[in-house]
Amino acid sequence: MIKGIGIDLIELDRIAESLHKGDRLAKRVLTDKELDIFYSLPTDTRRVEFLAGRFAAKEAFAKATGAGIGKLSFHDMEVLPQQSGAPSFHAPGYSHDKIFISITHSRDYAAAQIVIEADNDMHN
């Protein structure tokens, strides 16, 4: 059973502007593990895409839960790569649910979609 669906779109220029001023936004949005990946990326362009994708994913998750950012902290949510490179989403209180995530980038935007599916075993 689907518990929630969320989507978010963000302009890469907004993220690039913020990063030009410093890494305050990155530290506000990214967990320590995500920051390690962020700082290891080879170019500013790739860092902008990474941060924008994580920002959009966390906003999409907050929308899918109905809680919104404010009740959920950015640091309560984490998007890490699987061995295949595909993203996986982790959030406390949702370990029994399946969380599907998709992140995409274009030249100007990053977008993310989240689908939360209840674990059927928990409801039978």
Automatic annotation (TrEMBL):
GO terms for biological process: fatty acid biosynthetic process. It is found in: Cytoplasm. Its cofactor is Mg(2+). NCBIfam families: acpS, pantethn_trn. Its main location: cytoplasm. It is an enzyme of class 2 (transferase). HAMAP family: AcpS. GO terms for molecular function: holo-[acyl-carrier-protein] synthase activity; magnesium ion binding. InterPro entries: 4-PPantetheinyl_Trfase_dom, 4-PPantetheinyl_Trfase_dom_sf, ACPS, Ppantetheine-prot_Trfase_dom. It catalyses: apo-[ACP] + CoA = holo-[ACP] + adenosine 3',5'-bisphosphate + H(+). Transfers the 4'-phosphopantetheine moiety from coenzyme A to a Ser of acyl-carrier-protein. This is Holo-[acyl-carrier-protein] synthase. Belongs to the P-Pant transferase superfamily. AcpS family. One of its GO terms (cellular component) is cytoplasm. Gene3D superfamilies: 4'-phosphopantetheinyl transferase domain. Residues 4-112 form the 4'-phosphopantetheinyl transferase domain.
